[in-house]
Write a structure and sequence with these properties.
Bound molecules: 3,4-dihydroxyphenylalanine
CATH architecture of the largest domain: 2-Layer Sandwich
Shape: rod-shaped
CATH superfamily of the largest domain: Bira Bifunctional Protein, Domain 2
Strand order of the largest sheet: 1-5-6-10-9-8-7
Strand content: 15-25%
Oligomer: single chain
Order of helices and strands: HHHHHEEHEEHEEHEEEHEHH
Structural class: alpha+beta
Helix content: 25-40%
Radius of gyration: 40 Å
CATH topology of the largest domain: BirA Bifunctional Protein, domain 2
Number of helices: 11
Distance between the termini: 81 Å
Largest sheet: 7 strands, mixed
Length: 339
């Protein structure tokens, strides 16, 4: 009998019950009238009187232990069930902290959107390029400083494989694969071998636009630029074109807009001039058209290129270029309102 008592004790010790029904099953098995412990009580009547003292004590202890153990299991099961009820499924959830769009993406989309309304479609090209697409086809002289390692990241020399220094390379990719009329806008990342500072970075972003067709003139370029400037910086914006030089355009110009902070009156941002420079542009040099197999007697074109960082700085007065690539959430969160 002592053996049986020990076994039941061990069974109870090891018993687990996940819910109230399992606890009740244990109670019935051990403590109900027909359960194992009352059955032992019954048998107790027949044990030898010499053993009664010892077995009686063990049996009583088992009964107490069984009652305590089953109570403890019941409480644990109830606590488990309670946990579920702590979750209020009808409560309004806390708002999700969703990310913000990167300021450069916001501005890139705005630029693309403005040109899209003028019929420009997006074209893209590779960031790893060859000398022909980045320099030679665009009329860069063999000794042009951009072809120097100090300005350009080369992956290989002879044959030259390099990281494109401007998105003008997409112009020649498109002109060699499509026939005019061509009206494209090329957003993308470009690389230059510059020391990183508040005002320069080794990579940044540009948008290039190219329009090649019969009878494309300088006034088309000027009107496109005026439309872009006013859509981007507001209807009061004025533009001015200053003569400049780029190997791939002739004539070439740089465009200023009336300072969008002071309206052109002169402030510290525009260094008192009332104007800020925003892009380079010009009529596609006939030599560039010819190098891409386009008859320059039949077709003319204009091109323009701008830095997305520059436009973003002007729109949002970002003073340090490095902020764009540091992933500082405090900086990025400032653009929630700009959605
Ligand atoms: N590729 C020039 C640069 O990276 C920008 C540029 C200037 C693009 C004049 C043009 C252009 O298409 O006509 O500085």
């Amino acid at each position: 009998m002592l053996e049986k008592i020990k076994n039941i004790h061990a069974e109870l010790e090891a018993a687990v019950a996940e819910d109230a029904a399992a606890v009740e099953a244990l109670r019935i098995k051990y403590l109900s009238k027909k359960g194992a412990i009352p059955a032992l009580m019954n048998d107790f009547r027949n044990v030898d009187p010499s053993q009664k003292r010892e077995l009686g004590q063990a049996l009583n202890e088992l009964k107490t232990y069984a009652a305590e153990r089953i109570n403890a299991l019941r409480e644990a099961a109830e606590r488990g069930a309670d946990k579920g009820s702590e979750i209020d499924l009808t409560r309004t959830p806390a708002p999700l902290n969703i990310g913000t769009r990167h300021p450069l993406s916001l501005v890139r989309e705005q630029i693309i959107d403005i040109f899209r309304r003028l019929g420009f479609t997006i074209a893209e090209g590779p960031e790893i390029e060859d000398d022909w697409h980045v320099f030679e086809s665009l009329n860069f002289a063999p000794d042009h400083p951009a072809r120097d390692m100090q300005d350009t990241f080369f992956i290989n020399r002879n044959p030259d494989v390099l990281l494109r220094t401007h998105t003008s390379s997409v112009q020649t990719r498109v002109m060699t694969s499509q026939k005019p009329p061509i009206r494209i806008i090329c957003p993308g990342r470009v690389y230059r071998n510059e020391a990183i500072s508040a005002r320069a970075h080794c990579f940044f972003h540009q948008v290039e636009a190219l329009y090649v067709d019969k009878n494309v003139t300088y006034s088309d370029l000027r009107q496109t630029l005026l439309y872009f400037a006013r859509e981007m910086f507001g209807p009061e914006t004025r533009i001015r074109l200053r003569p400049s030089y780029f190997p791939f355009t002739e004539p070439s110009a740089e465009m200023d807009i009336s300072c969008n902070l002071c309206g052109g009156n002169g402030c510290s941002f525009c260094k008192g001039t009332g104007w800020v420079e925003i892009l380079g542009c010009g009529m596609v040099d006939p030599a560039v058209l010819e190098s891409c197999g386009i008859d320059s007697k039949e077709y003319t074109g204009f091109a323009l290129g701008m830095g997305i960082e520059r436009i973003t700085n002007l729109k949002y007065q970002v003073k340090d270029l490095r902020l764009f690539s540091e992933n500082d959430k405090r900086f990025l969160d400032e653009f929630v309102a700009a959605h």
